[in-house]
Amino acid sequence: MEPREFQFVFAGFVVAWLIVMIYALTLGLRERRLRKELDRVRKMVERR
Amino acid sequence: MREKIMYLLAAAGIGLVTWTLYKVWFVLPKEANVAAYQILYFHVPAAFTAFTGFFTALALSGFYLGTGNLRYDALAAGVVEVALAFASINLITGMIWARYAWGIWWTWDARLTSMLTCWLIYAGYLILRRAIDEPTQRARLSAFLAILGCVDVAFVYKSIEWFRTQHPSPVLSIRSGGGMGPGMEAPIYWNWLAMLCLGTVLVIIRMRQEEISRAIDSLRRLAHAY
């Protein structure tokens, strides 16, 4: 494969998996935020 | 149990991707070892995965409208979110392919435009869900949008037969394309299966978050009731 072709294939491969990774990372961060929120609300209910 | 299924699916997805990469790079005939083919092995499975997700969301939305059970609505939203990620992969890898093959990143061809419209409809679906607080109204409107979106999905699929524009005509033997050559088509389907496995893992994670959100909501209601 020529270097120019390889660049395109590599870009396609990186983009494809980067999108999945970024989405998975976003999900991970969202879950952490939700768990924190759940703990906070749970404590608030317990205090009442 | 759910965790075990998740790890099993993730391992299967990663294993399948590695295997198809090996096949594409080292086993397939030399004709496949060009950028035009190699990008296709991600571009097409990503579209298939996105479409599978959109049709699953259609079915789930139908179940919601039929039963009124909000669990179907939550699952449909999770599936659309994941399918949209794969639709983004399809659009961006398509643009990279276009730059390589046609020398341009984008053209307003029937297939490309309908796919972008499809992406916008489902992005709109997710925005709509954030804009409406009342759960049943949100679920009903989302279900209608998911049904509308699937009409466009069917249009995207058929557009390369109906309009002879820039996008290549069908090449897969499951359509009228006649196939890509011996053994060269199979990695597309294996990659589709791999993406479906990974997509299912992401939907399971997304559903777990839905459960946490519901728990937060019910605790909040409890707190307000005191």
Number of beta-strand segments of chain B: 0
First-to-last CA distance of chain A: 68 Å
State the end-to-end distance of chain B.
36 Å
User: Which consecutive residue ranges of chain B, at least 5 long each, have pLDDT under 50?
Assistant: none
Q: What profile does the largest beta sheet of chain A have?
A: none
Explain what the structure shows.
The complex is a heterodimer of chains A (48) and B (226). Chain A has 48 residues and is an all-alpha fold. Chain A is 94% helix and 0% strand. The longest helix of chain A is centred in the middle third of the chain and has 45 residues, at 3-47. The termini of chain A are far apart. The model of chain A has no long low-confidence stretch (mean pLDDT 88). Chain B has 226 residues and is mainly alpha-helical. In chain B, 80% of the residues lie in helices and 0% in strands. Chain B has 6 helices and no strands. The two termini of chain B are 36 Å apart. The mean pLDDT of chain B is 89. The chains are: A mainly alpha (48), B mainly alpha (226). The interface between A and B is medium-sized, with 26 and 33 residues.
Short summary:
Chain A has 48 residues and is mostly helical. Chain A has one helix at 3-47. Helix content of chain A is 94%, strand content 0%.
